[in-house]
Amino acid sequence: MSAVRSKLVAARPGQAVVLLERARSVLAEAARADTPDERFALAHLAALRTAAAVVAERGRPASSRRRLVSVWVLIDVVAPEYAQWSGLFAASAATRAAVEAGARHVVPARAADDQWRAADEFGHLVGTDLGLLAAPLAS
After folding, report:
1. 115, 118, 134, 137: which one has the fewest Cβ atoms less than 10 Å from its Cβ?
2. CB under 8 Å, gap of 24 or more: what pairs does 31-34 form?
3. Bridge partners, 107 (sequence order)
4. pTM for this structure?
5. 11-66 pLDDT, tens per residue?
6. Domain layout of the chain by residue ranges
7. How crowded is residue 95: how many other Cβ atoms within 10 Å of its Cβ?
8. In the chain, at which residue ranges do the beta strands (DSSP E only) sit?
């Protein structure tokens, strides 16, 4: 891991905090969503922003700076302790993309609620680990 860490490119200071705040805002919006599809897509977006906060805090591998790489792939490199989360959210990316492309009634209410809870838990875990965030949104 030390070899990987030595080849990381740091982000701007404070960027992780901003990304986590945006993730929390999107997650709150997801909680108020009118449809399961919208709730699912917004919860996934919140998870993406949370993952981006991890990458901002830990740094991005220099080898990935000039090409598009999924944040879930980056998480596996810079923060392997979140691999289970990256797998979960990477697996749901196609569903989010379908909803954003206009698909309707593709997400059952329970799946949307599960996605929301997972994004909330992931955000809380990352915020706690990075020392940047307090309590989860779920009550």
Report:
1. 134
2. 31/116, 31/137, 33/112
3. none
4. 0.83
5. 455 888 899 999 999 999 999 999 999 999 999 999 999 999 999 988 877 665 66
6. 2-130
7. 19
8. 8-9, 60-61
Q: Where does residue 102 fall: left (phi above 0), alpha (psi -120 to 50 degrees), or beta otherwise?
A: left
Pairing of β 60-61 and β 8-9? antiparallel
Burial class (CB in 10 A: 0-12, 13-18, 19+), 96: buried
Report residue 71 as tokens. 């944040």
d(CA 70, CA 75): 9
CA atoms of 65 and 85, how far apart (whole Å): 23
Q: How far is CA 16 from CA 31, 56, 67, 100, 134, in A?
A: 23, 5, 21, 25, 14
**Alpha carbon distances (Å) from 68 to 37, 71, 137:** 27, 9, 31
Helix (H, G, I), strand (E, B) or coil at 48: helix
- Among residues 37, 16, 38, which one has the least CA distance to residue 26? 38
